[in-house]
Write a structure and sequence with these properties.
The complex is a heterodimer of chains A (213) and B (253). Chain A has 213 residues and is an all-alpha fold. Chain A is built from eight helices and no strands. Helix content of chain A is 81%, strand content 0%. Chain B has nine helices and 13 strands. Chain B is globular. The longest helix of chain B has 16 residues. By secondary structure, chain B is an alpha/beta fold. The chains are: A mainly alpha (213), B alpha/beta (253). Chains A and B meet through helix 1, helix 3, helix 6 and helix 7 of A and helix 1, helix 3 and helix 6 of B.
Chain lengths: 213, 253
């Protein structure tokens, strides 16, 4: 019984991990694109991106999931995305916006002197960004990024709103049959996973130590 | 590097243009359900949806020539699920209310149901009549359910006693842990739940609330389908199909 339920919860946790991995995979690069947009010298683009980030950060993720899943069918009669795809799309958009602001903070924290030094050495703008600035930015944003990434692990439980069988949904369904403990037992899965992530980020910070500026 | 960025942007755009699955509504009829024993639940051995409502739905729509596909929905957003075409019908122990009638098309009622109190078995002496509800520190029920209507119309209760929750199933945990003293839920669900697992120290009490009716829900424009189901339901009442199903699943019809 215990193993049977552990196994079923583990299956649910597989879905949780899938949402987590897919979100990171797409949101990390998309966030960078958005951060360039919000720092663009081309004003219209800058404001469009700023308004977009405001909308996404200003509304609950749960609502965004509902909009992505039901919106196309309700408004345009287009039909439905696969549930899990809809969840990932909503998460990617949401997290990309948060990531973009972290990237922006990191990029703007690099002193102007470094750009000037690069120009003096005859480097192009993109050379300066990718060879000089980027790695320093990576080092500086690791702590805030680790915060967001850990939050993401737990935000996956919102997928329940459109009946995605992630771990908390599986556990909740057990309560309907009179089993309460699986609900609290799910904490073990989250804790182990977040524990591993914490170790990973600790290791990453150490690896980037030599960049001290 | 500029090329790389351009490529990245293109890839992301391509991703954005996800194709939508066409929603064919030919021979398959999608029936919205929740895990709500004994009306709709998943059989552990076969992994298929079963229960009083599931079996009745399969039989009725089968007779009309449809393949039934059960789709698990979130109960609070059932009307959105129906309007958006995610499902074509709701057949899940749905109590008829005026509010529902305004939004969707309801079939003729196919069975009656009643709300009962669920309490800790140790409190059996304390809660015997409707008036005893005023003694409860908290009363848990599903928001928008039949219990909600009953409790909001009842006299002698104050706002602070009422705890509106997302799902009926959640209320059992409230009473079990002592966070609430009483839950007001469907008889069918109460009967099934207090008999199993961690909830065996709970009991249900019938205090004689007015009976209510279960019906099937359709989109307003699907009048033809609703008409056909009404004819079949009348037939099933006549030939005691519904009565037999009730016996099989321990439901009082």
């Amino acid at each position: 019984m215990f193993w049977q339920i552990s196994l079923e919860l583990l299956q649910g946790f597989g879905v949780t991990c899938l949402i987590f991995a897919a979100t990171l995979l797409f949101a990390l690069p998309l966030g960078l694109v958005l951060s360039f947009g919000s720092m663009s010298r081309f004003k219209p683009l800058k404001y469009v991106v700023k308004v977009f980030v405001w909308i996404i950060r200003g509304t609950p993720l749960m609502l965004q999931i509902l909009v992505v899943y039901y919106g196309p069918a309700l408004i345009f009669h287009w039909g439905f995305l696969d549930r899990i795809v809809a969840v990932v799309v909503a998460f990617v958009i949401n997290y990309a916006c948060y990531f973009s602001e972290i990237y922006r903070g990191g990029i703007e924290s690099i002193s102007k002197g470094q750009y000037e030094a690069g120009q003096v050495l005859g480097m192009t703008r993109s050379q300066i960004f990718f060879r000089v600035v980027l790695l320093q930015v990576v080092k500086r944003i690791v702590p805030p990024m680790s915060n967001e990434v850990i939050t993401l692990v737990k935000d996956t439980s919102l997928a329940r709103i459109i009946v995605v069988e992630e771990i908390l949904k599986v556990a909740y369904d057990f309560t309907v049959t009179g089993l309460i403990w699986p609900l609290f037992y799910t904490a073990v899965y989250y804790l182990v996973f977040v524990g591993l992530l914490t170790l990973l980020f600790g290791w990453l910070e150490k690896k980037l130590q030599y960049f001290k500026v | 590097m500029k090329k790389f960025l351009a490529l990245l942007c293109t890839a992301l755009l391509a991703l954005g243009a996800v194709t939508f699955a066409a929603c064919g509504r030919d021979d398959t009829l999608k029936v919205g359900v929740t895990k709500y024993p004994p009306m709709d639940y998943i059989d552990e051995t076969t992994g298929e949806w079963t229960g009083f409502d599931a079996e009745l739905a399969r039989k009725a729509f089968g007779e009309l020539g449809y393949d039934v596909e059960f789709v698990e929905i979130v109960w609070e957003t059932k009307i959105v699920s129906l309007q958006s075409g995610e499902i074509d019908a709701i057949w899940n122990g749905m109590t008829v209310t005026d509010e529902l009638r305004q939004n969707i098309l309801l079939s003729d009622p196919y069975m009656t149901n009643q709300q009962v109190l669920v309490i800790r078995a140790a409190d059996a002496e304390k809660y015997k009549t409707q008036a005893d509800l005023s003694k409860a520190s908290k009363i848990a029920f599903e928001g928008g359910s039949a219990a909600d209507t009953i409790l909001s119309e009842m006299e002698g209760l104050n706002e602070g006693q009422l705890l509106s929750m997302e799902k009926q199933a959640d209320t059992f945990l409230e009473v079990k842990t002592g966070s609430s003293d009483v839950a007001v839920v469907d008889l069918a669900l109460a009967k099934e739940t207090v008999a199993q697992g961690d909830y065996t120290d709970l009991a249900y009490v019938n205090v004689g609330f007015a009976t209510e009716e279960f019906a099937v829900g359709f989109r307003k424009e699907d009048t033809e389908l609703c008409q056909k189901i009404n004819e079949l339901l009348a037939k099933y009442k006549e030939d005691n199909t519904i009565g037999q199903l009730g016996e099989k699943y321990g439901v009082t019809v």
